[in-house]
Design a protein that fits this description.
The chain is of the alpha/beta class. Helix content is 26%, strand content 20%. It has one domain (31-305). It has 7 helices and 11 strands. The relative contact order is 0.15.
Length: 307
Amino acid sequence: MRCKPVAVSCTAAALLLAAVLVLPLAVQRRQPDENGMYQQEGYWVQYLGERNEKSADSFVKKVNSIRDTLLTEENKVYCAIVPDKSHYLPDEGWPVLDYDAMASQVQAGLDDSITWIGLADHLTLTDYYKTDAHWRQENLQPVVNALGEAMGFSQDLSGWEQNVFEGFVGSYGKYIPAPAEPETLVYLTSPATEAARVDNFQYPDATAVYDVSKLSGAGSYDVFLNGATPLQTIENPNAATDRELVIFRDSFASSLAPLLCEQYRTITLIDLRYMVSGLVPQYVTFTDQDVLFLFSSWVVNESAMLR
């Protein structure tokens, strides 16, 4: 008579134990706010959404198509994807785009003539702003080293001057519920950046590499190459070589390109979010330039924006 109640009690206990074990997992699942934002370890993150495999496939097709239709056999071609800062945060239940899976998919689909450059191992969380999606220019030496190893150049940034702007609040500032704590923005200068001039598709006159007037406005990151634009060319007559570089890019390249102008006499930046790829030959003649496709994981996951 006692066995039956004991059996029932054991079953109930087992169910209770299972519920207790599952409960912490459910509690750990967190959701961003209505703007897709959340804060972790002092860094604000905007969730990029579930990994979009079709979008990554479209990105690969776009890169391969440009390689096949616009470039020459003499062009050396490279591709790299910038991880989102969330890639470097510990798992605390927040949704995160699977960068490793995305990078593997893109790398596997690229034409054999395109060299993949992995950047994930050359960045850490502190290489990003807390209130903005972008990386910090002053921390990009490891990225420059990775690019240089693949592309055949060497650039030491240790002697470059650090120009510090206090009070930077990035593009996430408008989404942060409480007033955002300002941080520093640093831009690096050298004789190379001082000598270089930027020809912007949208402006009649050449400009400097850094537009310091942007520091006083809401979009302070636009200090780098004056912000987003379809087409720009950086010319440095004092470069160490006569090499030329073309970067198909998004805004992450705005802070990277100035660091390369000592090694390349001409750097052309093309933003396919604002320029149809079919128009590129009207402005750029491809011969034997190095060509780098450099995009953030956000653009790869939303590649329909590339024209």
